[in-house]
Amino acid sequence: MTSEFARSAVLPHLEARRSCQQNTCYRPHAHDALSVGLVEEGASVFTAPSGDAVQLHVGDVVVIAAGQVHQCNPRSGPWRYQMVHVDQDWAAAQAARTGAGSLLAGVTVLRDARAHQRFREWSELLFSPRPVEDADSIESGFRSLARALAEAAPAHTVAGGVDPVVLERVRPVLERLRDDETNPRLDELGRLVGLSRFQLVRAVKSATGLAPLAWRQDQRVTRARHLLRQGTSVADAAHALGFADQSHFHRVFRAHVAATPSTYRG
């Protein structure tokens, strides 16, 4: 398993990744950013919370809106891919100038040579030997990619969105899960919103795509990524997020990111 990351000081929210995996490496997870990926080698299976599974092939470009729970793992043999994460609002502002706004919801898979080429050009810019400090070049590259994505016919789409009524009902539970350093019991969480533990699990999964404790872990990993990108040490990040020890933090982080905290931090 190998992973390489690139970031830019002028757009701190932007993160690019090149990775090669061979075994199942990702648990269901979500990003707090728009994600655009490209399959470079091998085949993989993209799975959405609905259970919909899409076979991805070499050249496929995948657009995943922020907050969409998913997992993608190699089907067999080596799987090499690239992924870029950017702030959803920033992407929406750029895409509004190209007509690609419809791609910023749910999940879209495209099989289009031009989209493939525009992604590669943008990724090469982000991974260029010199530090990428030119925001105009980054924005221009993304707009070229967004235009190509908007003009391509989707090969697959997976609708996004959550039930806003259910989300509001379980919001106190999500706040407790996010802020409490302990592992609250399900029956205790259920009492916060008048649900049994079984009703609670179904409601949280309907609202977020993940069961309560899985959602909590995913949120912790998202916060860990922000801390590590800011230069926080692995030990301090583990402590700040309430992990019992660094080895536990390492296992959870790697299961969500397919890279160790040290590799991710750089």
Report on this structure.
InterPro entries: AraC-bd, AraC_XylS_family_regulators, Homeodomain-like_sf, HTH-like, HTH_AraC, HTH_AraC-typ_CS, RmlC-like_jellyroll, Tscrpt_reg_AraC-type_HTH. Residues 168-266 form the HTH araC/xylS-type domain. The protein is built from 10 helices and 10 strands. The protein is α+β, with helices and mostly antiparallel strands. The chain has a 7-stranded antiparallel beta sheet with strand order 1-2-8-3-6-9-10. Strand 1 (2-7) and strand 2 form a beta hairpin.
Features:
266 residues; alpha+beta; Jelly Rolls; Arc Repressor Mutant, subunit A; seven-stranded antiparallel β-sheet; three-stranded antiparallel β-sheet; 10 helices; 44% helix; globular; AraC family transcriptional regulator; AraC-bd; DNA-binding transcription factor activity; HTH_AraC
